[in-house]
Write a structure and sequence with these properties.
Elements (H helix, E strand, L loop, with lengths): L1 H11 L2 E7 L13 H18 L13 H22 L5 H35 L5 H14 L19 H4 L9 H13 L4 E8 L4 E5 L1 H5 L3 H36 L3
Antiparallel strand pairs: 1-2, 2-3
């Protein structure tokens, strides 16, 4: 596992991504150290956005596990398909722009929910190589129908799944995640459903891509540009130091395993 994490970390250092978002409100709260809590936070953010966009119902799961994210993904798909039909019938430019922004958020919820579902499936396969997602989903749905007031789970699934009430969740051991999975969840938690207005991606081969929200090109905001540029500068310095650190670790590892 440590070799895999080191290899993945080295691969991740081949690119740097800096995003600037504008939030309506700021809580200043850090991501919970408990991974179960962080996943529940993400699920709740997606839930609230889908409610706002009018595509959350019907709702059966209000947890932070595989069933919750399957349901969130399904509702996001429904909302996306509806807007894809409507947008072709609208001629007003402002309304089209608004729907495009909603589509971007829905596609984010859809894609990131799918990533989390895949993560849980991998956890389940680690516990049981014969795990079958459709069969598990049917079983869990049947349990929920029989007892809608309680989030169902069996004696085994809570070890890898997180479809638990908050009280039950806090009594369980935390999920075992590797560095890549923690990084993925942190990014989802931090960005949530907010609109990314500026994004710069720098690759080790020298390629640099900067994305700017369309409305920002029409109404430039120098403060946002300054904040983003400063973030890029600071990130590049940190990135450079991290690359040197990993390179040094790799050299030491090579010396230790090379005879003589």
């Amino acid at each position: 596992m440590s070799d895999l994490s080191f290899k993945t970390l080295a691969q991740d250092l081949l690119s740097l991504e800096v995003s600037t978002i504008v939030k309506v409100d700021m809580s200043g709260r850090k991501m919970p150290t408990d991974r179960r809590e962080a996943l529940l936070d993400i699920a709740k953010k997606y839930h609230l956005k889908l409610v706002e966009l009018g595509c959350r119902a019907p709702e059966m799961w209000n947890s932070g596990g595989i069933m919750a994210f399957l349901e969130l993904r399904s509702r996001a798909i429904q909302g996306r398909k509806k807007r894809e039909i409507v947008i072709n019938k609208i001629t007003d430019a402002q309304k089209q722009k608004h729907i495009k922004q909603e589509l971007a958020i829905l596609m984010r919820i859809e894609g990131q929910s799918e990533q989390i579902v895949s993560m849980f499936v991998n956890f389940a396969l680690r516990e049981d190589p014969a795990f079958d997602l459709p069969a598990y989903r049917k079983c869990m749905r049947d349990k929920m129908k029989n007892d809608p007031e309680r989030l169902p789970y069996d004696d085994d699934s809570f070890r890898w799944n997180n479809d638990l009430s908050r009280g039950t969740m806090q009594k369980q051991a935390d999920l075992e995640l590797d560095a890549v999975q923690i990084s993925m969840i942190r990014k989802m938690w931090e960005i949530g459903t907010e609109q990314v207005v500026l994004q710069t991606v720098i690759h080790a081969d020298g390629d640099v891509t900067t994305r700017i929200a369309e409305h920002l090109t029409q109404h430039p905001n120098q403060t946002l540009f300054d904040v983003h540029n400063q973030a890029v500068d600071n990130s590049v310095k940190f990135w450079h130091g991290l690359v040197e650190l990993v390179t040094g670790m790799a050299k030491n590892l090579f010396k230790n395993i090379t005879p003589g």
